[in-house]
C-alpha cells in the first residue's frame, strides 16, 4: 500500500480519537483535535489528566470510549504510542496516525507487523486533504 493509500484509508474513517489531546490551544494535540472537529469528523479526546477539552468530555483511554473509533491520532511520547498501538489492536482499531515526535522505529515496525494502517513521520495538520476528505462525506 502506498503512503497516499494509507492516508486516504485513515481519512476515510468517520470517527477518530486524539490521544494526548491538550487543554492548551497552542499544543499540537489541541490543534489536531480542533482541526478534525472543524473538518466534520466525530472526534474523541483522550487524556488521562483532563476531564474536558474544548468543551468536550475527555476520556482516560481508548478502552473508555463510548464507541469504537475508526482511527487514532497519537500525540504522546513513543513509549506511550507503543501502548496505544497495542490497545488499538485489542479494540479492533486498524488505523493509527503517529505524529512527528510520537514515533519510533520500534513502534512503526510493531504497527506494520500487526497490520495496522500506520502513518508516521507526517503531521496531520499540514495535509490540505483533511478538510476536503471531511467535506466529501
Which keywords apply here?
single chain, 137 residues, alpha/beta, Rossmann fold, seven-stranded mixed β-sheet, 5 helices, 7 strands, 36% helix, disordered C terminus
Question: Would you kindly provide a written description of the structure presented here, covering whatever features stand out?
Answer:
There is one protein chain. The chain has helices spanning 3-11, 28-38, 78-91, 105-113, 129-135, and strands at residues 15-19, 42-46, 52-53, 56-59, 71-74, 95-98, 117-120. With 137 residues, the protein is α/β, with parallel strands linked by helices. It has one domain (3-135): NAD(P)-binding Rossmann-like Domain (Rossmann fold), CATH 3.40.50.720. A hairpin with a 2-residue loop joins strand 3 and strand 4.
Topology:
Blueprint: H1 3-11, E1 15-19, H2 28-38, E2 42-46, E3 52-53, E4 56-59, E5 71-74, H3 78-91, E6 95-98, H4 105-113, E7 117-120, H5 129-135
Parallel strand pairs: 1-2, 1-5, 2-4, 5-6, 6-7
Antiparallel strand pairs: 3-4
Summarize the structure.
The protein has a single domain, classed as Rossmann fold, CATH 3.40.50. It is built from 5 helices and 7 strands; from the N terminus they run H-E-H-E-E-E-E-H-E-H-E-H. It has helices spanning 3-11, 28-38, 78-91, 105-113, 129-135; strands at residues 15-19, 42-46, 52-53, 56-59, 71-74, 95-98, 117-120.
Amino acid at each position: 500500500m502506498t503512503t497516499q493509500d494509507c492516508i486516504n484509508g485513515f481519512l476515510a474513517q468517520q470517527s477518530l480519537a486524539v490521544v494526548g489531546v491538550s487543554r492548551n490551544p497552542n499544543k499540537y494535540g489541541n490543534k489536531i483535535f480542533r482541526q478534525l472537529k472543524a473538518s466534520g469528523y466525530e472526534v474523541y479526546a483522550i487524556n488521562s489528566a483532563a476531564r474536558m477539552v474544548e468543551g468536550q468530555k475527555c476520556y482516560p483511554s481508548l478502552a473508555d470510549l463510548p464507541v469504537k473509533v475508526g482511527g487514532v491520532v497519537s500525540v504522546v511520547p513513543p513509549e506511550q504510542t507503543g501502548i496505544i498501538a497495542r490497545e488499538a489492536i485489542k479494540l479492533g482499531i486498524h488505523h493509527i496516525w503517529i505524529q512527528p515526535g510520537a514515533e519510533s522505529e520500534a513502534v512503526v515496525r510493531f504497527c506494520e507487523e500487526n497490520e495496522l494502517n500506520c502513518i508516521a513521520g507526517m503531521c496531520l495538520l499540514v495535509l490540505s486533504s483533511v478538510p476536503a476528505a471531511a467535506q466529501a462525506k
